[in-house]
Amino acid sequence: MLEKSISQAVEKGEMLPLMEEFYTIQGEGSHTGKAAYFIRVGGCDVGCHWCDVKESWDPEKHPPTAVDAIVANAAKYSKTIVVTGGEPLTWDMGPLTTGLKNEGMQVHIETSGAYPLSGTWDWICLSPKKMKMPLPEVYEAAHELKVIVFNRHDFAFAKAEAEKVSSNCKLYLQPEWSVREKMIPMITEFVMDNPEWHVSLQTHKYLNIP
């Protein structure tokens, strides 16, 4: 009976498979350099071969944690919260974002956009993946489009994805970490030729912080 009640709470978004939570500096995209509390939720079936948090994929490996407890921990550290994964939209984000907003927090999400948008967000960073493309509603809502560049074919993919977001959406290209030395010169050249785009680097890795 207890397992069933936990399963139902997870299904409703009242509990989430919490992989980790930590206070650090946002290292990527539009909010680079800002102090933020990260909530990493387990569960993802998008399956990027270069993913650097593959341990997040299986939600069964991460304990179902009450949203109230997650919110209480976040409130101790920061007014800027980043919900990431895994793929957080695998789950109903409504209860979590309601709790965080009730505490007066700015709530951001990093998502592939592959699942329906739930929750209330101040900032949506959409990082589309070819393996499981975003839904139209997430393109429309995105504040930031961040395309990971693993090879030269990703530049054409980035241009196609930019056609699907709003004109106010900020555009970023970010080299995949393992090929950064090869891809950074190509990204630099692309952004200079296409100045509507910006370069995003994983600055937290250069700073050796989580």
UniProtKB/TrEMBL annotation:
<keyword id="KW-0671">Queuosine biosynthesis</keyword>
<keyword id="KW-0460">Magnesium</keyword>
<keyword id="KW-0411">Iron-sulfur</keyword>
<dbReference type="InterPro" id="IPR058240">
    <property type="entry name" value="rSAM_sf"/>
</dbReference>
<protein>
    <recommendedName>
        <fullName>7-carboxy-7-deazaguanine synthase</fullName>
        <ecNumber>4.3.99.3</ecNumber>
    </recommendedName>
</protein>
<dbReference type="InterPro" id="IPR007197">
    <property type="entry name" value="rSAM"/>
</dbReference>
<keyword id="KW-0004">4Fe-4S</keyword>
<dbReference type="GO" id="GO:0000287">
    <property type="term" value="F:magnesium ion binding"/>
</dbReference>
<feature type="binding site">
    <location>
        <position position="86"/>
    </location>
    <ligand>
        <name>S-adenosyl-L-methionine</name>
    </ligand>
</feature>
<dbReference type="GO" id="GO:0008616">
    <property type="term" value="P:tRNA queuosine(34) biosynthetic process"/>
</dbReference>
<keyword id="KW-0479">Metal-binding</keyword>
<dbReference type="GO" id="GO:0016840">
    <property type="term" value="F:carbon-nitrogen lyase activity"/>
</dbReference>
<dbReference type="Pfam" id="PF04055">
    <property type="entry name" value="Radical_SAM"/>
</dbReference>
<comment type="pathway">
    <text>Purine metabolism; 7-cyano-7-deazaguanine biosynthesis.</text>
</comment>
<dbReference type="GO" id="GO:1904047">
    <property type="term" value="F:S-adenosyl-L-methionine binding"/>
</dbReference>
<dbReference type="InterPro" id="IPR024924">
    <property type="entry name" value="7-CO-7-deazaguanine_synth-like"/>
</dbReference>
<dbReference type="GO" id="GO:0051539">
    <property type="term" value="F:4 iron, 4 sulfur cluster binding"/>
</dbReference>
<dbReference type="InterPro" id="IPR013785">
    <property type="entry name" value="Aldolase_TIM"/>
</dbReference>
<keyword id="KW-0408">Iron</keyword>
<feature type="binding site">
    <location>
        <position position="51"/>
    </location>
    <ligand>
        <name>[4Fe-4S] cluster</name>
    </ligand>
</feature>
<feature type="binding site">
    <location>
        <position position="48"/>
    </location>
    <ligand>
        <name>[4Fe-4S] cluster</name>
    </ligand>
</feature>
<comment type="similarity">
    <text>Belongs to the radical SAM superfamily. 7-carboxy-7-deazaguanine synthase family.</text>
</comment>
<feature type="binding site">
    <location>
        <position position="44"/>
    </location>
    <ligand>
        <name>[4Fe-4S] cluster</name>
    </ligand>
</feature>
<keyword id="KW-0456">Lyase</keyword>
<keyword id="KW-0949">S-adenosyl-L-methionine</keyword>
<comment type="subunit">
    <text>Homodimer.</text>
</comment>
<feature type="domain" description="Radical SAM core">
    <location>
        <begin position="31"/>
        <end position="210"/>
    </location>
</feature>
<comment type="function">
    <text>Catalyzes the complex heterocyclic radical-mediated conversion of 6-carboxy-5,6,7,8-tetrahydropterin (CPH4) to 7-carboxy-7-deazaguanine (CDG), a step common to the biosynthetic pathways of all 7-deazapurine-containing compounds.</text>
</comment>
<feature type="binding site">
    <location>
        <position position="40"/>
    </location>
    <ligand>
        <name>substrate</name>
    </ligand>
</feature>
<feature type="binding site">
    <location>
        <begin position="25"/>
        <end position="27"/>
    </location>
    <ligand>
        <name>substrate</name>
    </ligand>
</feature>
<feature type="binding site">
    <location>
        <begin position="127"/>
        <end position="129"/>
    </location>
    <ligand>
        <name>S-adenosyl-L-methionine</name>
    </ligand>
</feature>
<feature type="binding site">
    <location>
        <position position="210"/>
    </location>
    <ligand>
        <name>substrate</name>
    </ligand>
</feature>
<feature type="binding site">
    <location>
        <begin position="50"/>
        <end position="52"/>
    </location>
    <ligand>
        <name>S-adenosyl-L-methionine</name>
    </ligand>
</feature>
<feature type="binding site">
    <location>
        <position position="84"/>
    </location>
    <ligand>
        <name>substrate</name>
    </ligand>
</feature>
